[in-house]
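Q: My labmate handed me this sequence with no annotations at all. I'd like to see what the chain might look like in three dimensions before we decide whether it's worth expressing. Could you predict it?
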Amino acid sequence: MTCYRLAKRRDLFAFPYPIAIWRDPPKSVEIVRNLVADGGFKHIYTVGDVVTRNFLEYGLIPTSAAVDEKTRRGIRVERFSAFRSVVEVVNPPGYITDEAWSAVEKAVEGGVVVKVRGEEDMLSLAFIRLAPPRSIVAYGHYMGALIAIPVDWYRRDLLKLFDFLEKC
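A: Here is what I predict for the chain of 168 residues:
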């Protein structure tokens, strides 16, 4: 069973790791598109409703995505048809439940939307750990930046964040 709970040092998880793009869409999506092309990346995983919607709207279709249908801006992802399947899971705030972890394991294979009842934020760590080589994980930072993580470049360092999670 794989379940993690954020118990301490929440501040470390709010830090804008490692490429923060402080531009509004479509420019932010264009920057990631260029990063993908220039870096030879093959997979893009988005975490969050606004990021996923922006990628879809501006033609950069994620390999898979995780959404919770709750945003500060009231934006909903409506183009689930861009994906082969939708997997619904329960994942409370500050957790990566076993159910959510299993859904991300399926999602890294491609074509899956993980639709979360609860909160999807922590699933970015699951994507970082499970994504295949040549992947980018993208999510929105609460202060407005688009965060893009080239997994091969940063995985080892970012996985140290698991040291601050408790097994549940």
